[in-house]
Amino acid sequence: DIQMTQSPSSLSVSVGDRVTITCRASQGISTYLNWYQHKPGKAPNLLIYGGSSLQSGVPARFRGSGSGTDFTLTISSLQPEDFATYYCQQSYSIPHTFGQGTKLEMK
Amino acid sequence: EVQLVQSGAEVKKPGESLKISCKASGYTFTRNWIGWVRQMPGKGLEWMGIIFPGDSDTRYSPSFQGQVTISADKSISTAYLQWSSLKASDTALYYCARLSSSSGQGDYFDYWGRGTLVTVSS
């Protein structure tokens, strides 16, 4: 299985902050990398697919980048509704493993 | 509008069997893979497996192969996840999700159900 490692595991942030979450794959996965936002009691929400493509309806403050083994999710200016846990996921090979998650907490 | 409606919460005893469901609507069920994702209490998301309802082709994560069975009934646009003998460690929230693909960009879960909570306790 391809291992996905996110950092940090948690992040204390404030509204308006620029937030960067990184995800590293244990082997090259081209740009087959997705990002999801997950809030307690709700279904996960697809933000980014194919490394950098913004899912329809997702605000433009979310940006994905990277290829190969190293990827980044950037939130340009954090909004109150963005406090959540974020997961990366590779779809290069089955099983399509997730990272362990990065939880954004209020500073 | 694409919707995935999952069956309700279940409370079971160890050793019992269980089948939970995920009913799809708003798209052609046989054209997309559907997957199952586990979230154990306080933990992250785990990819369990996927099924293509068109021909019931199924792929499992090695971690879940032999532990669960994924199936689908295309006549009623419903996917299933089942256990023959539950363990306490199966206690978790289980999500179904539709898998979509874009050329050169891989696969991704673009629509999700709201989850089915399974509690296994004696």
The topology string of helices and strands of chain B comes to EEEEEEEEEEE
The largest interface is: A-B, 31 and 27 residues
What is the element string of chain A, with H for helices and E for strands? EEEEEEEEEE
Number of strands of chain A: 10
Structural class of chain A: mainly beta
Low-pLDDT runs of chain A: none
How many distinct beta strands of chain B? 11
Report the portion of residues of chain A in β strands: over 45%
Average predicted confidence as pLDDT of chain A: 97
Portion in beta strands of chain B: over 45%
- Average pLDDT over all residues of chain B: 97
| Overall helicity of chain A | under 10%
In short:
Chain A is mostly beta strands and 107 residues long. Chain A has strands spanning 4-7, 10-13, 19-25, 33-38, 45-49, 53-54, 62-67, 70-75, 85-90, 102-106. In chain A, β4 (33-38) and β5 (45-49) form a beta hairpin.
What does this structure look like?
The complex is a heterodimer of chains A (107) and B (122). Chain A is 0% helix and 48% strand. With 107 residues, chain A is an all-beta fold. Chain A has a six-stranded mixed β-sheet, with no helix packed on it. A four-stranded antiparallel β-sheet of chain A has the order 1-3-8-7, with no helix packed on it. The radius of gyration of chain A is 13 Å and the shape is globular. The N and C termini of chain A lie far apart (35 Å). The model of chain A has no long low-confidence stretch (mean pLDDT 97). Chain B is mostly beta strands. Helix content of chain B is 0%, strand content 55%. In chain B, strand 5 (45-52) and strand 6 form a beta hairpin.
